[in-house]
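In practice, a research group might receive sequence data for several interacting partners and want a quick structural hypothesis before committing to experiments. The following worked case mirrors that situation: the sequences arrive first, and a predicted assembly follows.
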Amino acid sequence: MTDVAADDLDAFRGEACAWLAENFPASLRGGQDPTRAPGPQVLTPDQTLWKQRMADKGWATPTWPAAYGGGGLSAAQARALQQEMDRTGAYNPMYGMGLMMLGPTLLEVASEAQKARHIPPIVRGEVRWCQGFSEPGAGSDLASLATRAEDRGDHFLVNGQKTWTSGGQYADWCFCLVRTDTARKHAGISFVLFDMKTPGVEVRPMKLISGASPFCETFLTDVVVPKENLVGPLNGGWDIAKRLLQHERTGISGNAKPAAADVPLAELAKRYVGLDAAGRLAEPDLRARIAANDMAAHAFQLTAERVLKETKSGSPSAGSSILKNAGTRMGQERDELRLEILGMAGIGWEGEGFEDGELRAVRTWLAGKATTIYGGSQEVQSNIISKRILGLPESTQG
Amino acid sequence: MTDVAADDLDAFRGEACAWLAENFPASLRGGQDPTRAPGPQVLTPDQTLWKQRMADKGWATPTWPAAYGGGGLSAAQARALQQEMDRTGAYNPMYGMGLMMLGPTLLEVASEAQKARHIPPIVRGEVRWCQGFSEPGAGSDLASLATRAEDRGDHFLVNGQKTWTSGGQYADWCFCLVRTDTARKHAGISFVLFDMKTPGVEVRPMKLISGASPFCETFLTDVVVPKENLVGPLNGGWDIAKRLLQHERTGISGNAKPAAADVPLAELAKRYVGLDAAGRLAEPDLRARIAANDMAAHAFQLTAERVLKETKSGSPSAGSSILKNAGTRMGQERDELRLEILGMAGIGWEGEGFEDGELRAVRTWLAGKATTIYGGSQEVQSNIISKRILGLPESTQG
Amino acid sequence: MAILTEEQAMLRDMAKGWAQEKNPVAAFRRMRDSGAPLGYDPVAWREMAQMGWAGVLIPEDHGGSDFGYLSMGLLLEETGRTLTASPLLASAVAAASTLRLGGSDAQKAKWLPTIAAGETVATLAVDEGPRHAPGQVALRAERAGDGYRLFGAKRFVLEGEGADLLIVSARTAGDPGDLEGITLFLVPGDAAGLTRARLSLADCRGAADVFFDGVALGDDAVLGTPGEGFALLDKALDRARAGLAAEMLGAASQAFEATVDYLKTRVQFGQLIGSFQALQHRAGRMFMELELTRSTVEATLAAIDAGSPDAPLLASLAKAKAGETFNLVSNEMVQMHGGIGMTDAHDAGLYLKRARAAEATFGGQAFHRDRYARLKGY
Amino acid sequence: MAILTEEQAMLRDMAKGWAQEKNPVAAFRRMRDSGAPLGYDPVAWREMAQMGWAGVLIPEDHGGSDFGYLSMGLLLEETGRTLTASPLLASAVAAASTLRLGGSDAQKAKWLPTIAAGETVATLAVDEGPRHAPGQVALRAERAGDGYRLFGAKRFVLEGEGADLLIVSARTAGDPGDLEGITLFLVPGDAAGLTRARLSLADCRGAADVFFDGVALGDDAVLGTPGEGFALLDKALDRARAGLAAEMLGAASQAFEATVDYLKTRVQFGQLIGSFQALQHRAGRMFMELELTRSTVEATLAAIDAGSPDAPLLASLAKAKAGETFNLVSNEMVQMHGGIGMTDAHDAGLYLKRARAAEATFGGQAFHRDRYARLKGY
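A structural hypothesis for the assembly, expressed as tokens:
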């Protein structure tokens, strides 16, 4: 699918540059990717065009095999492509769980037929996937999974309830953990795929404290899942899930980076608090804590950069294990400081009397509380660090 | 021994007032109790006189039975006496582990002969006691006690090693836990008393990080302890130790109160940092943290007062369980802030170039690190709160 | 828990019973979901007034019971536990205290009886920006004939949407930031030239911006001495801060208890999560902070009752401590409940939002740290 | 861990081997107990110099290796691990950097070769009070004939007792606190009118107060441009701060590792204490802070090597972060070791004392928070 066969990186870079110049619509240049809203996509003609061209080129999934529509690029070429896209102001129009988590996992463990069927639509951004792992009462603890899949010859009959289904109300397909053996815990779980339009699948959005509903409860009643949709061996779902979750973790600490739209704390404070005669923020107690948070963010960012470099150079990076806790901690502190700066304007909910930025600060703060809970809670991360990295013994008593 | 038989509190108060006026040497008025140095006592003639008079009166141990030389007062009378002493500027010249911990315990559990022998010298401040509980490698965990006492008919032969013997180098007698049954853990421990001059007792002072040596290692080699010195039943020492330790805990959080000689942080900062034009400390970041520590100290003090009131009124006081952790935490923060205020002068060790107050700040900081370790470590206290007060289940795994 | 008189113990038990049984968190949730414009349930408020709660700080000859601040603190603590929204703090504490401390006999006789009966909802209109700064008064009171005309705006006025009486700090001399030259005015809610804009807050309490466009007032509307209003206002604010700290203590206590209960029932990885030592120690930390906070709140209320000169220092201590502790506990409530605590259907989010709103009201932790240090002379 | 060149990796391994095997904490303890007047072991320093460590920041034509700050950071980190006391920071980093940044060809030719050889111990004499304040210069340099005379005192000068060369900030114009009017002087340790008073510090490093009673200097003693010394000094101080942060990172890392080892071997209540989850999470927290600190230290050293304009901001970040982390880790080292950690015979107290001394040197956390905010423009 790619026109580049040679190893010559410079040549590839030139080609990528030329292709982008020709194919990336100038109207989309520079701005943030506008297509990632949680709801259904509504694209402008130029956005549609760009998505189409990237789909044809396979460069939304640059390192995936060309045989399934991917870019077929080497890691070095993919990095060069990203650099060229950054330079051009271009963005990757594809996103979501299919691209980030399921695709890489399927490429590792799925059958040829499954790959041929499911990878190309991911490459082209045509199918939205959701994840059916969590269940009510299970939380971080997937081993107590209760959704059952009964063997009915050519298909499984699935009954149970999933929760925290991210974007379930907009998803086309679901990758799901089901119990296929009740006698064993981890070793009785299988990994299946099903169409969300299958009869018996019902989703109900859950309203969160921030007022948004990014997750659903998903009820499964006599859902027929053809056996061809079992990924990997029967009762082998646990290992697949672990592999898939590794792709998830890296994403969440990225939340620690302020969105471009967010004003830095100090700028916000200059407006709400003002400067003293010496040019310092007029409230020195607040100023010291803003500086402390800026410094924490700076240290976090330097660590993320260091981990990236170390990982690329092939050395093991102990730093990666701390990114999630450090990033989410600092991000939550930042969100709380933002409210403190805003005073009463930091508890506005909606309507007149508040600026958009003020209302967004409140919602961001509330939504951010989830960052220490999902994707491996802060506590689970601490356990992992103390056991896997520091080699401390299993907890037994205290 | 007391001249007051009537219940009339006012009458007693009047009598106490008169007795103090007559007997407390005017030269000692107001100043801090000068007799509590860790080393051997060196008393002025007036201090000796006062000690003698209080010994005769029994009022150093006001509620202990008159039969053993105590004051024989009711709790209400003892409070009135304390108030009169505070008003007069008088102090209690007796102190130490005999008075605070062993005496009350002996009064509860010892034989008549033991009480008759050991209580009067405590009342008169004539015998210094030390505690032989901790052993190397045991720390907070007394159940693994290894010092053995073999039954030799009329005496025990004791061999082993004790550590953290507070004031062991100055003590006359020791109350000590020994193992009299190796087959059982807690139920194999006995509580004995021995003279520190017994052959085979050797003490070696331990130098601490603060440079002081308030504790000793105590080596016991074939030490003969007469059977009459066994307190309570054989193998019943564990319960006695627990009772005794309850008397210890209340004392330590008192360390959170700054000694009268200590300058408040804000006063110290005024000198080392100065004030700005508006009369605030010139370093606002430091100022905010000094205020936070003052507020923590204030909240602690209000809690201590509340607990006292609640306890006196007979209601159970949950607040008492938090005093040690809250007080020691705040005290350690205060000690660290003091160093921060002093800058490089806050790391002086000795000699020229430093003021006495600067050097004391460093030693106080170092010595204070022990407050979260001894008398029930911070972690043990947290376990107690979560299990006994909050009713959380035994820790099992994590 | 402070040592209570028999009267106080009865009051507390009554309040606890009413709040837990008749006005639990579910009642607050219903009020919220109904979009009640006032930010409280008028029926519940009538019940509270009928029990005499609005008159606890009002002298007997003006229809109150004069039970004092420690007693009022018990009511606020118990209703705070269930997040009960009502004008108790704004009207029966903040405004009633200001009138009692600074009002003329005529002013007291006019307003206190209906405040005690819960018929008049009164409030303080203090701040002009989003951050609490009672000395930053720009709202002008201009001399006009025998009286004054007010021009300017007050922001985030508690119960501002429904208040029948507003006690407004206005500038009769000097510039914003000067503590001299501030005068307090009693402004009826229906005064000509007064308009309001309701604010929708995360904690769903009633608040509004209030605009004064030449509101005309007679000399009898002046509360206390003209130009010297700041001292009176500061004293009244301390009473409101102490009351709010009591409410926050109650809310934090219930949030904590709900969390400990959850630790005792929720199973993960085959264990009660309350058996995990790291969570136990964090729970122990919260318990410690709650006990410390209780001491500061009770001492502040008692100091106000005793007329102690320490009351301002203590009020700042209690408000700061309560803010810190309520934030800690409500954050941990969400974290320890995990995903379920993130849902709107669970109460954790309600406590979380209330914590930050209460923190911002009448000065947050940094405001009171600064004030504490100033009062201590450094 | 930064990506190292082959040269750097060799240097690091050499330093690690030497520190752990030839100069472990026990060596520092022996030096301390011997009452070594200089605050370091001259024999060990000679070995370090022979390995070329004193010349890492000095150009090759002046006898150094010019390996750069990242390389010097590796040496400081490894020797910091074992608390090795030496003039490496004061002489080979602080003073050598100042000379290299601001010295004339003649000055460099005169001093750098012997500094690189470890024969000259040089140092910065900056502060005049116990708290780091490089702009608060009162020490006067008066014009006298063809040169200057210095009057005043410097306090807490690192290696001040033994230094052969002092770089002294003096005031040639303006008042204490002004950043203009400061001039740096090269003052030989044996200059007439210079006296010293040795200080005994808790961390047993060499430091002294230095007094200047009319010390006479020629014009050739001026380092850099007269009156504009602060900018040069600040730049040199950032290099010293970065180096000290690297040393602190090393010390904190070893303190942490020793503590984790203890958690894995110490039994209480029939369990390894490392199995207690509350301690595990606290250990995890320390690990996180160490990783964050490492990133800031390495980034700062790399920025200095690259001549990046971010170096001042990063230096403040690294010094503050290292101070915070070293305090946390050394406090936990004592606490987690329990009673044994309180004894002088255990190493925990040595790390604890070093942490506070290093914090106070060249500005603590609050100093650098303030500086960070200033550099960021708020």
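Before designing any experiment, note the following. Chain D has a mean pLDDT of 97. Chain D has eleven helices and ten strands.
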